[in-house]
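Weekly modeling sync, notes
Attendees: S.R. (lead), two postdocs, one rotation student

Agenda item 3: backlog of single-chain predictions. S.R. asked that every request posted to the team notebook include the full sequence so nobody has to chase files. The rotation student volunteered to paste the first one in as an example of the format we agreed on. Action items at the bottom.

Example entry:
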Amino acid sequence: QVQLVESGGGLVQAGGSLRLSCAASRRILSSNVMAWYRQAPGKQRELVADITSGGLANYADSAKGRFTVSRDNAKTTVYLQMNSLRPEDTAVYYCNVRMVSTGVTYWGQGTQVTVSS
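Predicted structure, as returned to the notebook:
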């Protein structure tokens, strides 16, 4: 079992920046993908960015050029640097980790990001 704990959310003005962190409760040695999703009120949860344990990153179109995902494998921690934030980025942001070999996925509890105009 793995617990994920997100931090770094908050209230920021449009154009500002936030850095989210998500730490796993134990080190994961097997190949895995860590990801950030978000869910705005009344909308489905959507992928923002993910990154493999080898460091290959993938971004949603809405995140390209503004957000950067990174990870620290020694700590099994994933980060999301969000710049040039917009009101439409307002959502609860969730991290997850998926084990490549089994498909088992764990989710964090989410952290609120609110961008004011």
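Discussion: group reviewed the output briefly. The first strand starts at residue 4 and ends at 7.
Action items: rotation student to repeat for the remaining queue; S.R. to check formatting next week.
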